[in-house]
Amino acid sequence: MTQTNTQADTQRITARAKEMFAAEMAVLGENTPKSRALFERAKATMPMGVASSFQAADPYPIYLSHGHGAEVTDVDGRTYFDFHNGFGAMAVGHAHPLVAAAIEHAAKTGTHFAVTTETTVALAEEICRRFHLERVRFTNSGTEATMDAIRVARGVTGKDVICKIEGSYHGHHDAVMFSVTPGLDLVATNAEDARTDHLPASKGIPTGMAQWTLAVPFNDLGAVERLFEKRSKDLACFIIEPVMMNIGIVLPQPGYLEGLRQLCTRYGVVLIFDEVKCGATIAAGGAIERFGVQPDLACFAKSMAGGTPGGAFGGKAELMDHIGDGIAQQGTFNGNPLVSAAGLAALTEVLTPDAYEHFKRIGTRLAEGCRQAIAASSIPAHVIDLGCKGCVSYRPEPLVDYRSFLETNADLFDASWAWMVNRGIFLTPGNEEQWTLSVQHDDSHIDRFVEVFSEFCVTIGG
Fold this sequence. Notes:
alpha/beta, Aspartate Aminotransferase, domain 1, Aspartate Aminotransferase, domain 2, 4-stranded mixed beta sheet, 15 helices, globular, disordered N terminus
């Protein structure tokens, strides 16, 4: 096929996607009048009508009323098979009996004391065991976990500058709100030099803070080494999602994480893994287990806490033991009994070795079904399957970094999302996200996803 024909096909499919999206959104609007009404009500008290900006949608979001197992129900009474799973926080599924029992017990015996309980200690022991950490401290979110890990790295090294990956997201604290999605205007314009003239991703963050945050592309060891050669005397840490998961899923190329480990050791830079998304989802021990590379510090949240608002960070004792010795890390609700009970039940009773075998089987079933549908329709897309995570990205070849993500066809994603939701498949509303499977998904949920997606591929490619 010539390049001209390929461009023509892409233009035809994109035009068709825009038409389908408009039609499907009209149907969605007809089917969700109570969501629309709740949105109008919510706007009076909450900016954008939601509790977090990530929950916003145009023209309004779908509001849910309850969930059970692998299904959720919206305020209009429509039930969906849930592949959203709370932005990846619900690998245990909804209202899992073992997690629910642990939460109920905590509710009856005390949800908060601001005193460490035995349950909190047990959860710390399990996190250290899973991820091969020597010490751990608790937080209430992934944002707090990365914020505190960076503070520890700065405090121990006595250096102020941090480095992150171009286009990555590590929470919404000021230090990491540079070089994130959605556009190249927010990233370093010269990746090789890791320039610091990029803009913050939010108003309210002093632009001068950019001098403390550098960015390099993912999967580019050469860029890291050149930066370390120039700036290691200033660099406290290098923070990275070992698998990029804010632009779909981008896998580390063979040797990349190992090379980072060697460079950080050689130049005295603290290596921080942000495993908020991949910890306890892509393997029992997260990326640390899956890729066999041990960072100095690692950050966790989402599925680690069994669907409750908890997070953690930890690593080497020689770093963590500086907490309380000049480095502050605190929080009234850190490690509270309710979150600790849910997290301990999730990690020790639900996300067991059998659970990861289940994820492997149904994840492969889902990914292969999607791949076959894509191949049959010749739409420009690829599939990534990783533990209970996976995604379809609308670019023919797998992504390697943020700039390759900018080549994905957002119109195709929009059309697919509206199509799937209208047919009972609940998904994250953005092509930068992934599906998340739970232990409560079974073959019927997977096969329905594949059936609906296959119908979309036939329709869009026809």
